[in-house]
Design a protein that fits this description.
The protein has 27 helices and 19 strands. The protein has 656 residues and is of the alpha/beta class. The strands form 4 sheets. Strands 12-11-10-13-14-15-16-17 form an 8-stranded mixed sheet, sandwiched between helices. Helix 9 runs antiparallel to helix 10. The longest helix has 21 residues. The chain is globular, with a radius of gyration of 28 Å. It binds (S)-3-Hydroxyhexanoyl-CoA.
């Protein structure tokens, strides 16, 4: 097999080109190729060396598929030592994304240039790792302690211009990268630019308290994760140890992270997320329908959020409401949301105005006639939804995709209300829709392949993580929530308190305890749904009696100031004896014997409830693969990333 790295002389410059699609990851072959090319350059007529990549990006990091396997020589830090020790200056020419080991390669070069569109970052923390090839030691030397900590503990990439301001990039090349970088390298030679090793630079001055501050902040922000705290220790070592000592600590901590269950879980998610976007049996060459204009029916919280997702991606949206008043209310919520984004510095005023200008409103379904996609986002009334789809069938142009944002309802029954069920699909957004990453894409029995493929692609355009679900009550996520919620009720009757349940689950890593979630969603939602059911359909009263009593007392959740908790003026939950009395009375009425329940039992029973339902969902073919269920729970339900999702967690417990 030919090497993914080539070397040639371009006049007096030795050019090392990496060509290892899709992202030029540093596989063993790439590492070996760069080591060989650097060695060749030391002995030929070149006066300087340039590292550049072909394809869509500079090196996007170490090859993650090699992690967890025995290391094959040359090991990345060895390759980087060769780059840095080159007797001729080495210039890295960056386009696309220089990430992780890719940026570490660039930092080992003596000079760096980049296209304005390039991004650089050290995202290892998102894989439960830390930069393990000198990133923790070289970045603070070049950019200072604070910038280094921010880059590594957030994992978020920064634009080339920011990287230049921080001292990580020396020059922005505006035109063609190859010719611009060659010309700049020649300028450096003409100026007599020396071999400049980042390992030999000293760390700029920094605030003495900074490490304690970051440790305290990260203990809260990245609860239970080890990599962020190890990053702080490594950066601290860059300030008070030699480069070699810092590298030794970095290696020790990198290996500790690599061998941790947390990193295994986060690496699983990296691939799970990408796998989820693929639909078995639908090829990459499936023709897609063009989506240039979108209609959204319903200007409530969901409809407004959905409209913003498309507008933020540059797609124009027509929002439909039943009256001018309702429309004005809906549009004003959107205005408020954009205002909030500007205030928080998430969007510039100009960008917010440009996005907002893409959203228009109407009370007439005829305005949807030219839309390529229409998403219905009204409340969960199956008859109303069917009526809307009958209307859409009349007004939408042939080939338009008609989607329902239902969280529970039968997408096939909704599709059957139209004459074109092949064009109907479910798009289940999560609230707030313009922020939450997950999109459950519900494939009906008749949904056409190109409709599904188009929506999966569109999800990426609007920056969502799509997961395909078959049709069942609640799809993947909400269906699993059902036994989880029932188990919570049993735990309360058997002796746990709401606060104990929530604290146990939050300590374990859930973003929010289940009872806080129920209070936030509103206890009346489930109550109303149960009113329409027979006793048989409702199931065991132990699983719903307490919330029913609370709703009948007017405690419908946080919006009413009380639910499983009471809420103070600032919306903080406070444990309430009234609720405890209700729980104890219901337990007595239903003959449940109360006992002391441990936190471990709470976690085990609740996670098992999720996993058992997940297993059924898999067996029934509702989810394509177990890892899809993990993606749903991580991005839609606040499951801890460092545990990899319920199915991965269950497997890892079995294998432990
Ligand atoms: C590291 O560097 C550790 C070092 O500090 C120390 C080592 C000693 N390896 O995301 P996409 C695959 S840790 C292997 O859909 P995009 C990906 O699975 C690493 N494969 O494209 C997918 O495969 P498939 C630090 C990788 O354009 C395909 O490439 N670096 C890697 O939306 C396309 O990916 C990172 O964490 C990899 N490193 O986004 C960067 N990266 O087609 C991780 C991607 O079979 N990567 N693949 O599904 C990314 O953030 C995005 O992939 C990137 C492109 C922004 C580059």
């Amino acid at each position: 097999m030919s090497s993914p790295v080539s070397y040639k002389l371009d006049g007096n410059i030795g050019v090392i080109s990496v060509n290892f699609p899709p992202v030029n990851a540093l596989s063993q072959a790439v590492r070996a190729g760069i080591v060989d090319a650097i060695a060749t350059a030391q002995g030929d007529s070149s006066e300087a060396v340039m590292i550049i990549c072909e394809g869509r990006t500079f090196i996007a990091g170490a090859d993650i598929t090699e992690f967890g396997k025995p290391i094959q020589s040359p090991w990345l830090p060895e390759m980087l030592a060769d780059v840095e020790n080159s007797s001729k200056i080495v210039v890295a020419a960056i386009h696309g994304t220089a990430l992780g080991g890719g940026l570490e390669t660039a930092l080992s070069a003596h000079y760096r240039c980049a296209l304005p569109s390039a991004k650089i970052g050290l995202p290892e923390v998102k894989l439960g790792l830390l930069p393990g090839a000198g990133g923790t030691q070289r970045t603070p030397r070049l950019a200072g302690v604070k910038a280094a900590l921010d880059l590594m503990t957030s994992g978020a990439p920064v634009a080339a211009s920011m990287a230049r301001d921080a001292g990580l990039v020396d020059k922005i090349i505006d035109d063609d990268l190859y010719s611009g970088a060659i010309a700049w390298t020649r300028e450096l030679l003409a100026e007599g630019a020396p071999v400049r090793k980042s390992s030999e630079q000293s760390v700029p001055e920094f605030d003495a308290d900074i490490f304690d501050e970051y440790r305290a902040m990260l203990k809260k922000r990245a609860r239970g994760q080890i990599a962020p705290l190890h990053i702080v220790s490594c950066v601290e070592a860059a300030t008070n140890k030699t480069f070699q000592e810092g590298m030794a600590l970095e290696r020790e901590m990198f290996m500790a992270c690599m061998e941790s269950p947390q990193s295994a879980a986060m690496r699983h998610l990296f691939f799970a997320e990408r796998q989820a976007a693929k639909v078995d049996g639908i090829g990459k060459d499936t023709p897609l329908r063009p989506i240039k204009t979108v209609g959204v029916i319903g200007g409530g919280t969901m409809g407004g959020g959905i409209a913003m997702c498309f507008a933020n991606a540059g797609i124009s949206v027509t929002m439909i409401e039943i009256s001018d008043d309702a429309l004005a209310r809906g549009l004003s919520i959107i205005d408020k949301n954009y205002g909030g984004s500007v205030k928080r510095g998430k969007l510039s005023q100009d960008k917010a105005a440009a996005c907002r200008a893409l959203i228009s409103g109407s009370t007439d379904y005829a305005s949807l006639a030219e839309c390529d996609l229409v998403i219905e986002a009204v409340f969960e009334d199956p008859e109303l939804k069917k009526r809307i789809f009958r209307q859409l069938d009349e007004v939408c142009k042939p080939g338009a995709i008609m989607a329902t944002n239902t969280s529970y309802q039968d997408v096939d029954a909704i599709a059957a209300a139209t004459s074109r069920p092949q064009d109907v699909i479910g798009t289940h957004f999560f609230s707030p829709a313009h922020i939450m990453k997950l999109l459950e894409v519900v494939r009906g029995a008749s949904t056409a392949d190109d409709v599904l493929a188009t929506v999966m692609k569109l999800a990426k355009t609007i920056r969502k993580i799509p997961v395909v679900s078959g049709v069942c009550y609640g799809f993947i996520g909400n269906r699993m929530l059902n036994p989880y919620g029932k188990t919570v009720q049993l735990l309360l009757l058997e002796g746990a308190t709401p606060l104990q349940v929530d604290t146990a689950m939050e300590e374990w890593g859930m973003a929010m305890g289940p009872l806080r979630v129920f209070d936030l969603a509103g206890l009346d939602v489930g109550y109303k749904a149960r009113q329409a059911l027979s006793d048989d359909e409702k199931g065991d009263p132990k699983t719903y009696q307490v919330p029913d009593v609370l709703v009948e007392m007017g405690r419908t959740g946080q919006k009413s100031g009380a639910g499983f908790y009471e809420y103070d003026d600032r919306g903080r939950p406070v444990a309430d004896q009234v609720v405890q009395n209700v729980i104890e009375e219901v337990a007595k009425d239903l003959g449940v014997e109360r006992r002391k329940i441990s936190d471990d039992e709470i976690v085990e029973r609740l996670i098992s409830a999720l996993v058992n339902e997940g297993r059924k969902i898999l067996d029934e073919g509702i989810a394509q693969r177990s890892s899809d269920i993990d993606v749903v729970y991580i991005y839609g339900y606040g499951f801890p990333v460092s545990r990899g999702g319920p199915m991965f967690y269950a497997d890892s417990q079995r294998n432990a």
